[in-house]
Amino acid sequence: MSDEPSVPDRSGGDNGGVNRTTSDRGRDRDEEGRARSARPRDGLGRPLPYGAEGVPRQPEGVVRDPDATLREAQRLLDAGMPFHAHEVFEDAWKSGPEAERDLWQGLAQLAVGLTHAARGNAAGGARLLRRGADRLADVAGAGAS
User: Fold this and answer.
1) Does 37 fall in a domain?
2) Which CATH number goes with the domain that contains 119?
3) Is residue 103 assigned to a domain?
4) Hey, what's the torsion of the CAs at 39, 42, 44, 47, to 10 degrees?
5) Residue 114: which pLDDT band, with cuts at 50, 70 and 90?
């Protein structure tokens, strides 16, 4: 019997139908088994080779009040780090009240749209910017009633 963890079969298992390879076995995982990437990243969130010097990562799961969320996201946007601003907005939508979820998701979509555009993916960036703007327009419309 092998000391390696069992790998789900190709029929689906717990990996959503993605075939695991030998290179996947050493992946960084959280307590619930979800993949966490320990790879360094650049200022736009792109993975860099292991051992390369990346920018500090945005801590995940930070609960901030709305003002602190906006200040931190704006600081990151001003620093040219829209991917990291997206992470701040994502924390807000995951930890905030249900009534604010669409607001934070819309802002996160705008930030990730800027990320895609800065990475050279103009079509994807435009699509996400439209999606975020539409979501925020819906939020504004709901607030007006």
Assistant:
1) no
2) 1.10.3450
3) yes
4) -30
5) very high
Number of domains in the chain: 1
Inside any domain, residue 6: no
Token digits of residue 93: 């939508």
Q: Per the domain annotation, does 19 fall within a domain? A: no
Provide the whole-model pTM: 0.72
Structural domain harbouring 80: 66-144
Q: Give phi and psi for 79, each to the nearest 5.
A: -85, 5
Tell me the three-class secondary structure of the chain, residue by residue.
Answer: CCCCCCCCCCCCHHHCCCCCCHHHCCCEECCCCCEECCCCECCCCCECCCCCCCCCCCCCCCCCCHHHHHHHHHHHHHCCCHHHHHHHHHHHHHHCCHHHHHHHHHHHHHHHHHHHHHCCCHHHHHHHHHHHHHHHHHHHHHHHC
Q: Provide the mean pLDDT of the chain.
A: 82
